[in-house]
Amino acid sequence: MVDKVSPEVRSKTMSRIRSKGMAPEMFVRRLVYHMGIRYRLHRNDLPGKPDLVFSSRKKIIFVHGCFWHQHAKCKDGHVPKSNVKYWQHKLERNMQRDKRALKELEELGWEVLVAWECEIKFPELLSVKIEQFLSKSFAQPNAAPGGNSAAFPCKR
User: Fold this and answer.
1) Do 154 and 148 contact (CB within 8 A), yes or no?
2) For position 19, what pLDDT does the model report?
3) What is the DSSP string of 18-69?
4) CA distance 55 to 127
5) For 33-44, how does the pLDDT look when each residue is reduced to its tens digit (9 = 90+)?
6) Which of 44, 40, 35 is closest to 54 using CA atoms?
7) CATH C-level class of 15-134
8) What residue ranges do the domains of the chain occupy?
9) Would you say the pTM of this structure is higher than 0.85?
């Protein structure tokens, strides 16, 4: 599939994509706030600049877009059909950066949860997932990029 807009228009469009404060992140932030739990945002002194940081609990939540972080269990986690080499390289770099940040955070003693964009379609399930994670007894079986979305009906 050929891009239907000029490179200049595409560049302008892509430059407007923000990395913070997007709808999925805002949804998760509101969810946690309504649980009565307070957090810090985007601590740049931590690997990966986590979206939500719960310092006293040594826990972190990343809110990942299914496309940008290639959620394997979601229909949105795919490489576009145009400019395939570019997108494969870019999205692979994103996934490698995610893995590196996760490893570094775990080495520093942090527990990490990935909340995926597609999971906000199921707020009750996401709320339970976050509550369990933030409770003392939570042990997440798979926090790696790709995350544990087994309970969520998002499918490829």
Assistant:
1) no
2) 55
3) -SSS-HHHHHHHHHHHHTT---EE--TTSTT--SEEEGGGTEEEEEE-TTTT
4) 20
5) 999 999 999 899
6) 40
7) alpha beta
8) 15-134
9) no
